[in-house]
Amino acid sequence: MQELIAQIINGLSLGSIYVLLVTGFNLLLLVAMIIHFSYPQVVVFSMYIIWSVLQLTGNNLVLGIAAGVASSVVLNLVSAPLFQKVMSKRGEVDINATMVLSMGIGMIITDVLSHSFNEGLPVAFPDSLSSFAPIVRLGLISVQVGQVWSLGVGIVVVSAIFLILYKTRAGRAFRAIAEDPEGARLVGIPILRTGLYSYGLSGLLGGIIAVLLAMLLGSASPGLGEQVAHKVLAVSIIAGLGNLAGGLVVGLLLGILEAIVQGYISGSWSNAIAFIVMLVVILAKPKGLFGTRL
Amino acid sequence: MPLELYYFLSITAVNILLSWALYLPYRVAHLHFITVANMAISGYAAAWLVMALHVPFGCALLVGFALGGIIGFVVSLFIGDAPTFAVVIVGFTFIFISRTVIENLKAIGGAMGMFGLPNIGGNPDTHRLIIMVTLAALLLIVGFLLHRFEHSSLGRAASAVFMDKDLAASLGVDIRRLGMLLQTVSCTIAGGTGVLYGFIYKSLHLDFFTFALVGIAMTIIFVGGYATQWGAVVLAPILYGVPLLFPPAVQEWRIVIYGAALVLVLVLKPEGFITRRFVVSMESFLSGTRKKRNTLSREEI
Q1: Does the residue A292 lie in any domain?
Q2: Which of A91, A195, A222, B20 could pair covalently with A113 via S-S, beta carbons 3.0-4.6 A apart?
Q3: Predicted pLDDT at A89
């Protein structure tokens, strides 16, 4: 029983990261109308920027975190015109074309990471950022700093995003575009500017996720983005593309499932089981469990 | 034949076949990356049959095709008419699952891979000749079938689905069956290609079937032109050959170059270099029936 509780705690902290990633991904999908498949690769890039700045500044956490968050926002904003251009060239919103474009961006990021940082080897974050020392220990149950941070920040950030979406003027504009882009344009909502806000907001979110992932995992590798990208898109599809509340539920469930499977099954088979469960759900319900919001 | 030329021609042929395998379901807007997983599954299965059970290469190749087709058909039962992003994610999931399974199966070398696949025909020269002839034959057969498909009612139905699913359905196109057919054929091609890929290098390793391979195929299709089969034929040799002319330091960055090319073409020339309009003009020119016109006829579209 203690082992199960320990795995559920692991799963909740991992799941909260998935929830944040899916929320950022869905924001871009709903407001900017793009499938930013390489959004997790942007997050991993920010992790590498954090690592680099920590190396350069003798583990100055404030500078490292600031650089990580800034790089994520900048990378997201820089890619915005590319996505806009692809959509305007097609003459209509084409989320499939944006997905391919995003995959291209992901290819570049992954390969740059594997050539330019630490000779392609995984990078390890210092103990000042990522400590695996438990702050609470009860038998087999131990809670680490990174887990508390990821769960706590996850709850705060997701609540803040829901607050922005449902209680602010900008949030209403986001939701209006998600519901009916043409209608939103007719009532005077600046589509392009609001879209850019979503790039900025998801970039900010990406930076926060990068910090949390660094704390939780303690390391990063160039291939991390691809694996996480796949899970984020899977969670998003299982929940129903663009469904923020659904993403919250499925993200947490995936985290818990992964942690439990890893706790009871040894070796890399555990990963396969999580993927098989995801595959079965997608094959059975390709349009999602909770319905798409597109 | 010099070894460099053999590898250039054979890998180019594999890249064209893989790109065609992806191109076919993309005619109905399905990015079916399960093809890469099928290459791995069929490649390993055929190699195991040849090495462990001493099955002749020809039979193992047929098994590779069949295995790819069966997997493709079974999966297509569920995602024959699924949205693009669902098809993408099923493909990626299959790649992860097949990698994990292969990694854990000791009989096929696990994470170490399979090495020392035998020469077909007994010696290296005959081996290379058989591989080249098989690849050439496969290119001709698949290319011809694709060409016929493009000029058939099925090809027009696929174009209709690509443009507007609802409209295609209202015109009587069975979207699900068309999607299933294209996915199954695509996976069959990929299965056989995977077997040949393994026998070109006479070894198999998980690193042969990574996302880089997906990226290469995507670049070939989208930069070459996703609306015709000829884009892959033109771009595959360029994409594989040109980086070989550069110093090794530049070659290391070829995936970045591919990615940059993909992004630039999507932004600046979304239909790719070889467009359908260009192909129709060329066909008209070659058949001597070129007419002065600015638009394609309904049938050509």
Answers
A1: no
A2: A222
A3: 59
B contact test, residue of A82, A275, A278, A280 with most B CBs within 10 A: A275
Residue type, B3: L
Number of domain units in chain A? 1
CA distance A166 to A170: 9
The parent domain of residue A262 ranges over 2-118+141-284
The distance of Cα A110 from the centroid of its chain, to the nearest Å, equals 16
Chain B CB within 8 Å of residue A224 CB: no
What are the distances in angstroms from CA B150 to CA B69, B156, B230? Answer: 21, 7, 11
The one-character DSSP state at B117 is P
Residue-averaged pLDDT of chain A: 85
Torsion of CA B242, B244, B245, B250, to 10 degrees: 100
pLDDT digits (tens, 9 = 90+) for A245-270: 888 899 999 888 888 888 887 666 77
The pLDDT confidence band at residue A294, using thresholds 50, 70 and 90, is low
**In this structure, is residue A124 part of a structural domain?**
no
pLDDT number for residue B97: 87
Q: How far is B207 from chain A (nearest CA, A)?
A: 12
In this structure, is residue A165 part of a structural domain?
yes
Report CB contact under 8 Å: A279, B94: yes
Query: Is residue B282's pLDDT more than 90?
Result: no
| Total Cβ atoms within 10 A of residue B268 | 10
pLDDT at B298 over 60: no
Q: Does a structural domain hold residue A291?
A: no
Mutation to test the A interface, candidates B19, B27, B31, B89, most A Cβ within 10 Å: B89
Provide the whole-model pTM: 0.85
For residue A237, the domain's CATH number is: 1.10.3470
Regarding predicted confidence, which is higher, B280 or B136? B136
Is the pLDDT at A272 greater than 70, yes or no?
A: yes
